[in-house]
Amino acid sequence: MKTNRYWMVVVSKDHVQRGVKDGFMQANHGKAASLKRLSAGDWVIFYSPKQTYAGNEPLQALTAIGQVTDEGPYQFKMTGDFMPYRRNVDFYKCTETPIIPLIWQLDFIGNKKSWGYKFRFGFFEMQEHDFEIIRSEMLKDELAIAN
C-alpha cells in the first residue's frame, strides 16, 4: 500500500492563486526535478513569503493546500520560449494561515530563531506530524462547516 508523502512548496501568493484557480502547481521556476518526487495522492502545502513574485510586500503565510492527482510532471507552454513543468492538484478551500504562530510546533524548523532558512530551499518534504498541525489550521473553518 502506498503511503502519502507531505511537501512544502514556496511560491508567492499571486502565483499560488493562479495555480489554485486552474488546478496545477509549479515549483522552482518551472523545473521538473522537484515535481518528479511527487506521487498521486501526495499532499502539498504552499508557503508564500510575499504577496507577489515581482513585489516586496511580505506575507509569511500558508496560502494553499491540496493533493496531487496525476502520475508525473508535464510541460505547459506559457510564453513563446517558457515551457515550465507542472503537476495537477486538487486544491481544498482553506484559510490563509500565518506561519509565525506555528513555528514552535513544527519539527521541520530546527532553528526557531532563523525559522525562514528552511523555506529558502523552495521545496521540501515534511513529516506527517508537521503536516497535520498545518492542515488542521488551514482547514479548520471548512471542517467546522462539515460537522
Protein architecture, described:
By secondary structure, this protein is of the alpha+beta class. It has a single domain (6-146), classed as ph1033 like fold, CATH 3.10.590.10. It has four helices and eight strands; from the N terminus they run βαβαββββββαα. It has helices spanning 13-22, 33-36, 128-138, 140-146; strands at 6-10, 24-25, 43-50, 58-68, 74-75, 85-91, 97-98, 123-126. Strands 1, 2, 3, 4, 5, 6, 7 and 8 form an eight-stranded mixed sheet that branches. β3 and β4 (58-68) form a beta hairpin. It is globular and about 45 Å long. The two termini are 29 Å apart. The mean pLDDT is 91.
For this structure, the quaternary state is single chain
Helix share bin:
10-25%
Q: Which structural class matches the secondary elements?
A: alpha+beta
What is the H level of CATH, i.e. the homologous superfamily? ph1033 like domains
Distance between the termini: 29 Å
List how many beta strands DSSP finds.
Answer: 8
